[in-house]
Amino acid sequence: MNSKAINTAMIKTEAKRLGFLSCGVSKAEFLEEEAPRLEKWLNNNMHGEMGYMENHFDKRLDPRLLVDGAKSVISLLLNYYPEKEQVANTYKISKYAYGQDYHHVIKSKLKTLQEFISEEIGEIHGRAFVDSAPVLDKAWAAKSGLGWVGKHSNLLTQQVGSFYFIAELIVDLELEYDTPVTDHCGTCTACIDACPTEAITEPYVVDGSKCISYFTIELKNEIPDEFHGKFDDWAFGCDICQDVCPWNKFSKPHREPLFDAHPDLLSMTKKDWEEITEDVFKKVFQKSAVKRTKFSGLQRNIEFIK
């Protein structure tokens, strides 16, 4: 085995030890196929009021502009599929937000992995990313052989579906690169058919400005009236396109205690949600990603779908 292969194997072993579901590596280079797609998506205003999506266009497509001398993009998946879900007939939040905010949980694991690389392999320069910087996570994960991008635009794997977070370490270290896997969506259109707001405008294209997740998290203004009655009780985020995906019957519960739901959350009824106070909101969602929408945002969402 050459040193690149040995180093790559060491990194993947450590990633597994840290609890990551899988780890893949791709060469840090310009994302040629993604460039026209991203440009078209932005030109069609499918990002709605997410103005930040227009920023750093070049950096989104070339990791070498984010890390000087970048040679490799190490992509990692971390499972968040819960063992227990919310009670039936209640206002729903996306499963990823049940536990503590994933940004903090993953950043800490990435820091440990980066320190491991520096200690075991030698001083490297790199940066860790958890969907809060101009990095096309899904494109890199697919390029690294961790799955394929499904018709609902989420990363999919045959083994465990799609309920996981994606993160990256971009480093100036040459490693052994993985190859992409094939697409296994076939003729299935379950996600397209199930989306109540018709946000999946064609296979592999999601109009972000029509997505329930966008309305309940990103949109700061009033939710347009035309979407009344189409939210299927989703108050923060939406999992419909993932819930109906046949590959998610292979989802397995995560083993990350920090992603466990607050004990009060899963049993909350519609009445509990409608009567929630700011104090209860702070207690239940103290460390959760739900804080992004703020108490007022959550109230607005519930009012809209009542």
TrEMBL record:
Pathway: tRNA modification; tRNA-queuosine biosynthesis. Signal peptide: none annotated. TRNA binds at K220. Gene3D superfamilies: 3.30.70.20. The keyword Iron applies. It is found in: Cytoplasm. Its cofactor is cob(II)alamin; [4Fe-4S] cluster. [4Fe-4S] cluster 1 binds at C185, C188, C191, C245. InterPro entries: 4Fe4S_Fe-S-bd, 4Fe4S_Fe_S_CS, QueG, QueG_DUF1730. Cob(II)alamin binds at R60, D131, L155, I166, S213, C238, D239. One of its GO terms (biological process) is tRNA queuosine(34) biosynthetic process. GO terms for cellular component: cytoplasm. [4Fe-4S] cluster 2 binds at C195, C211, C238, C241. Its main location: cytoplasm. Residues 173-205 form the 4Fe-4S ferredoxin-type domain. Its EC number is 1.17.99.6. SUPFAM superfamilies: alpha-helical ferredoxin (SSF46548). GO terms for molecular function: 4 iron, 4 sulfur cluster binding; cobalamin binding; epoxyqueuosine reductase activity; metal ion binding. Monomer. Belongs to the QueG family. This is Epoxyqueuosine reductase. It comes from Costertonia aggregata.
